[in-house]
Amino acid sequence: MEDIIYNQLGYSILSWTVFIPVIGAVFLLFIRSESAIRWTTLLFTILTLFVSFPLLGNFDKTTYKMQFVERSEWIPSWGINYFIGIDGISILFLFLTTILAILCVLVSWKSVEGKVREFHMAILTMEAGMLGVFVALDFFLFYIFWEAMLIPMFLLIGVWGGKNRVYAAIKFFLYTLIGSVLMLVGIVVLYFAGGKTLDILALANAQYPFTLQCWLFLAFFAAFAVKVPMFPVHTWLPDAHTEAPTAGSVILAGVLIKMGAYGFLRFSMPMFPDATQYFSGPIMVLSIIAIIYGALICFAQKDFKRLIAYSSVSHMGFVTLGLFALNTQGIEGGILQMINHGVITGAMFLMIGIIYERTHTRVIAEYGGFAKLVPWYAGFFLILTFASIGLPGTNGFIGEFLIIFAAFKAKMIFGVLAATGIILGAGYMLWLYQRIFFQDANPDYEASGHHPVRDLGFREVITLLPLFVFVFWIGLYPNAFLDYMHASVEHLLQQVNATAVAGNENVIAKYLTEIF
Amino acid sequence: MEMETTISLLDIRPIIPELTLICVGLILILLDLIVKKKEIVAVVGIAGTLVALFGTYKLYGFYEPQVAFGGMFVLDGYANFFKLIFFLNIILTICISMKYMKIEKASFGEYYSLLMFSTTGMMIMASAADLIVLYLGLELMALSTYILVGLMRKKPRSNEAAIKYFFLGAFSSAFLLYGISLTYGLTGTTSLSGIAESLNALNIIGSPITYLGLIFMIVAFGFKIALVPFHMWAPDVYEGAPTSITAFMSVGPKAAGFAVLGRVLFDAFPAMQGQWASILIPMAVLTMAAGSIIALAQTNIKRMLAYSSIAHAGYMLLGIIAGTHEGLTSMVNYLMIYLFMNIGAFAIVIMLRREGFQGEDLEDYMGLSKSHPLASFLMLIFMFSLAGIPPTAGFIGKFYVFMEVINAGYVYLAIIAVVFSVISAFFYLRIVMYMYMKDPKQEVTLTTSPTMSIALAITAMMILIFGIFPSILLNLVRYSILG
Hints:
Shape of chain B: globular
Largest sheet of chain B: 2 strands, antiparallel
Shape of chain A: globular
Number of helices of chain B: 19
Helix content of chain B: over 70%
Strand order of the largest sheet of chain B: 1-2
Radius of gyration of chain B: 21 Å
Strand content of chain A: under 5%
Number of domains of chain B: 1
Number of strands of chain B: 2
Order of helices and strands of chain A: EHHEEHHHHHHHHHHHHHHHHHHH
Oligomer: heterodimer
Distance between the termini of chain A: 42 Å
Radius of gyration of chain A: 22 Å
Distance between the termini of chain B: 29 Å
Number of helices of chain A: 21
Number of strands of chain A: 3
């Protein structure tokens, strides 16, 4: 095997990173006191982060190869291995996950009151599932993590969520499940087409006939597009994001929806290069629709959290637009924008959770004049607003700039429309800011009113601070992050472009007449 | 060809497990007269079954084909694996029935011996290499089960279920006999391998009469398995029968039906694979569809699980449709996993039953996680496993079947199957939703007993172990069936 570098460290660092949260979840079963449960969970999430730190130092940025690889037999009769490793694409998501998990525990410190143990067990298993998805190099293993994650997420939304939580939880579950099972059929077909293996790297190196590529691409697209979510199948997202508890929204927005795009990068593109090229146009169109439609819908929202949820649809549109522009800037920008969106929207949901704890309302109209009431909060939120809009100096700028650059490179009109999306984004975010923090204050929340509103506390500042560090770090010195992915993205593009044969057009035409 | 007519003593060895179980059943009847506490009868029953189980595998290993009665009875890996399923089925059923039958005021000693006889019937079916032996086993199983279903004599529902089951069962037996006689009339033999040979030799593969015989047999087996359109009895019988018997029936006779279906199709009609596949494909699709869709509308959990078990039969049938021995293996593998998740789910249903409280409505599960977190968590595992979500064993079962059916070229069947599995996920989720996301309407106390805890621990553990380390089960099942 040339594409992998076996674990450079003396111990199985990735396995520990993935399974420490599971150990933590089991550990929680034996703890009675609620505060001890919170502290233990915090400890385990921090431990996970610390255990994964050596990955950063020892990561070889010059190669696209999979690193820290561990492989052992798992289901020999099917040729399935326990096979994990990371490359320049997955390493950033790994850290995004471990960091957000800590913040999720912190933000739930006061807001989650019922079933504390179950909540924290769900968070920890969720974390393990997400990490597993990003490190898995065997398709079966990937699918196990991918699906297993649904269970804790379903419970997080349904048990600890808002008023409409049950509806949102079931909708979320069934939407993602239908996409996933279609992918499952695709996986099995691929298993036989690729020579009875589910090794992701081996499957990526094999060649498949164009028609098969198209079908498999569509099967996988069903799963990934729902997860992203892309335009026609995005409707679960506003419900799930809005109804989920703060920690759930952060995980959803921060990591979960990135998995769809990650799936495109890891599976669809390298395995089905011809189909990727064939479908890149339509997907970019869908992305543009998502960008503009998502942004327009944001203008109509009355609910604070729902507005941010819809903004995710718009922002993820940028991500898929970048990825399917199929050039270096696009893919790197897409990956970076995923991290950015995780940071910004994650922080945004944290802040919504924080203010909701005080006001118990998400209706925008009931806010107003909060800049005076909670000046620190207003300041923090302003930074996030700018980052979300993509103001230079913040991380949002770098990602969106790269993507729009790539879109122009792909097709002029895509670039123009995407840029329109940014203007719309600035519109709804600034309008939101104005309605919440300026205008006349709602008398209910005046210092002398019914509910005096506190400004940010120490725990909350600690929760938010790491994300703000990233806002400026990525914004001012993006190379620290881009460096990790250069080699891997380059390799990915080679895979996508190398096998594309001239003369596909005829095949496509024939293929189309076959279908319609 | 000279037939061996004398039955030597050696010939009896392969049926020692069946004989053991029959003896245990008879002992239980006697024991019932002597001891007052029915728990003792039950424990002796479990002990006897364990003896039969250990005896079987100690004496013969797992994959050493043996024949008896001049080839009418075989003990091969296929039969052996099914016998393992039946043994586990009866042991788990006894574990979950002990307290429950008392609550139902139907705690007769005969209950346990009937379980033994019924299981013996299933074992004979699994080993049958001849249509006559097959029919013998089927009737032994069926007659015992009819009585078990109607055991709650004072309850009209139970009586109705028994009568319904009996009449339709008798009807399907007639179909089976008709099919057997047609086949016999054409081929001149009732031996499965003999039929395959004669079909070839006489060149009557695909002739209308052969076809008819095959169809009649499939109808009869389809009835036992509860395949659509022969499933009508299942919901009523499952609802009316004592819940422990529902658990028993939803696995045992279904597995036995699959055993004979697989055996007959693969051994007697291998040459007509195209024909029987084309009969089974629409049946499988209808079964999955009816099971998944009608279950959505149920408010009684026993009825819901009845439809769910119909849907599962559809998935298992895909393994047979694949038409390969690998496919057969995937079906058997699914059955083993289904055994644990289904009995586990019924065990929870039984726990809700107490004096003066049925506990069969879905609404009785509202807020269960508040008062009984552990039981709810187990139910959650069973439900997600039935829905086929990893990392539970239910996923492994489905994955293997889908793999084989795709390998056989039926990608569209796999797509249909996964779509229905998503539909069925909804009603499994609904139980979880009731338990975890609703507030309790009333106080629910659970009836527990040590044996019940054992059964729950075994089923839940197996689901997780097979889900995370599927190799353990896969190696065993592949070794037994593929050799």
